[in-house]
């Protein structure tokens, strides 16, 4: 942020954030391709600011106001979130909407293979992932005031239509695998089973903060894609991530000897989650997994388009991520016959 922008943010925080004292300095986090995120340091403490990116944006994308709303609603429940301190919807302050939340000191585990951990530690962290995911899907929507947080109706039909539209709006070339995947998802849409819960929309280990001394989740971050919908979308998102290569880029578990390293199989994680929620074995999980790959491909296409248009938080990284769109589409096609 520029010095002028910092002055504007400082003035706004003086008026809207209890206990705040300026001045502030800002350090941009490397994470957060979609919504730029900054650490703010001041005499009164450390804060985090998350804003919409500059430039022309796709309709309904980068909804920082929704992020703020859902995290504020979850305060005090079983889902760990940072304390929300203020939402600025006045775009004259910073040029875009933004919100400020508390800064939480914790571990951000980018790689789910956790190469520096012991098998026991890895198993405990993944168990915690399952516990928190089940907690998200068990939130009392009435008590949290979230009954209107998402539209009614068939979640996957709605999401397929939404992300197909977003993909078309950011399409830069014809990708045959994406066309094939969209057609397959349309033709194999399962019936609505009536499950309607809070869904995070991007639930994975690198969107969580853990305590430094134990496998305890302190906060679930990045709620931009959250809504009311079908919980299996989140569950499939976890399994999707694990199909990717391990390391800082793929952030997956493909090829990892899970038994030796203390990590559960896909089936074991799904079974643990189902037991926690008290739901039966999931039929046709291949559809949910294929959809997860499709949606991620559509998201990455949007990142690529913003990079080409000069609106990405990190244009070089945006183009690199965008290059994976065909690969995700192909993995989605492969997931259609998933058997666990």
UniProtKB/TrEMBL annotation:
CDD domains: ACAD10_11_N-like. InterPro entries: ACAD10-like, ACAD10_11_N, Aminoglycoside_PTrfase, Kinase-like_dom_sf. GO terms for molecular function: transferase activity. Keywords: Transferase. Its EC number is 2.7.1.-. It holds the Pfam family APH. Residues 26-249 form the Aminoglycoside phosphotransferase domain. It is an enzyme of class 2 (transferase). It comes from the Bacteria. This is Aminoglycoside phosphotransferase.
